[in-house]
Amino acid sequence: MFSLDQIPDLPLDLWVGGKPVPAADGGRFDVLDPATGGSIAAVANGTVEDAIAAIDAADAAAEAWAATAPRERAEVLRRAFELMQARSAELAALISLENGKALSDAKGEVAYAAEFFRWYAEEAVRAEGSVMTAPSGANRILVVRQPVGIAVLVTPWNFPAAMATRKIGPALAAGCTVVLKPASDTPLTALLMAKILEDAGVPAGVVNVVPSRSSGTVVSVMLHDPRVRKLSFTGSTEVGRLLLREAADQVVNCSMELGGNAPFLVLEDADLDAAVEGAMVAKMRNAGEACTAANRFYVHESVAEEFSRRLAERMAALRVGPGIAEDTQVGPLVNVEAVDKVAELVATAVADGARVVTGGTRPEREGFYFDPTVLLDVPTGSGILAEEIFGPVAPIVTFTDEAEAVRMANATEFGLVSYVYTRDLARGLRVSEALDSGMVGLNRGIVSDPAAPFGGTKQSGIGREGGHEGMLDYTESKYIATSW
Ligand code: NAP
């Protein structure tokens, strides 16, 4: 069985100025194993003083890092990619241990997370600007890209490695220094990432990690420090709104990756085998704890019974257990509050008239589990369709025509991702354009790719991570009006 002793270089203190440092007041907090509820480590609990020290370190390193040759920054990121690959087994076990996700999901996350370092190693050397003749002919318009400055990165617990690398990769490529505040449920992966980046050659102070149970005050003090020029946040829309207000005081540049409520449309001409396969991925990756998780299934009435029967068969066959066990397919949810929320949403949907096709209950075992669940005939007003479930539950609503399906899919304040299944590609593209979300999976249950712009419309966020745009978000354009 895996234990933390197998990672002797895992820092349990804050990571500031290139080394582990205890919290200013010596405080620590427990990290729990969601499979048992027991403590696996006590991590330094960053204070306001520590946050300022981390900004001091990022500030001291900023000028030299921004002046580093892009090729050099690229090579550091490339080494970080290689080190992550070399340490993928340890990283996956660590993610599984602190987050609860099945080891297979954790391995997938490590591969995905490492790709952000590879992609931004390749992008670091492509910081192009532009030059054009002014319309008047009097001068040239020269545009260069410069690093935006010190970036505060705040990440959630559901992808402890990938959400960190999706921010650190482009920030470092652009020449920014960073302070990362990881989620308190999963600080260990972020701390190991700091060590890996150091081993890859990242200079002291370029990457700092400050876990803290006082996230509100610690992030607030950083956003009010005039040296901080960028906030990149991934988490709930509720906390995102709060941080946008905080960031307004110093007019900090914000990138926000917020909550989702993804609709999954199965049109009457869909390939049902592909749709069920895609539904399993879109719903069950990370046991449903993904912002991209299919949250509402809209299935044409002519195929709804068949689709739900097949989906329920697949869901019921999943092996539920501790994430760290090799044969587990669905691990526990991250904490007891997460299970309570899922149980309540399911109970309310059933009271509203939904039929349980499979699951619907918590298994009787220690840890934070919920059974894979399929609900059919969910009434359109039910709360489960309006909120992020963040668990292994698939509510199905039937529809009769395409326009109605698109209208229901768009009837939400969220707009992160949508999925649509149809055999008719022209129809699929038409529906994709009509869906109000930043991303669409067309006959695909997964959209995440470091080479693609990830992000949402409406209250799912501002800005894009990944792709070429991801690095631009850590730069400012500087326009130089030039006469020559
Ligand atoms: P969360 O509660 O919003 O927390 C996210 C991060 O913000 C954590 O590091 C958290 O620290 C910190 N935080 C909480 N309250 C804060 C405050 N008042 N001031 C400053 N920081 C604060 O979200 P979560 O539960 O960790 O993650 C799940 C959410 O993330 C879901 O809504 C999901 O859709 C979203 N998500 C979005 C994307 C995307 O790319 N759009 C990707 C993944 C997840 P503590 O842990 O210490 O509270």
From TrEMBL:
Residue positions of the active site: 257
PANTHER family: SUCCINATE-SEMIALDEHYDE DEHYDROGENASE, MITOCHONDRIAL (PTHR43353)
Organism of origin: Nocardioides eburneus
EC top class, as a word: oxidoreductase
UniProt entry tagged with the keyword Hydrolase: no
Family membership noted in the UniProt record: Belongs to the aldehyde dehydrogenase family.
EC number: 1.2.1.-
GO molecular function, a single term: oxidoreductase activity
Protein name stated in the entry: NAD-dependent succinate-semialdehyde dehydrogenase
Keywords noted in UniProt: Oxidoreductase
Signal peptide start-end: none
InterPro entries documented for this protein: Ald_DH/histidinol_DH (IPR016161), Ald_DH_C (IPR016163), Ald_DH_CS_GLU (IPR029510), Ald_DH_N (IPR016162), Aldehyde_DH_dom (IPR015590), Aldehyde_DH_Superfamily (IPR050740)
Keyword Glycoprotein annotated: no
Lineage top rank: taxon: Bacteria
Domain Aldehyde dehydrogenase: 25-480
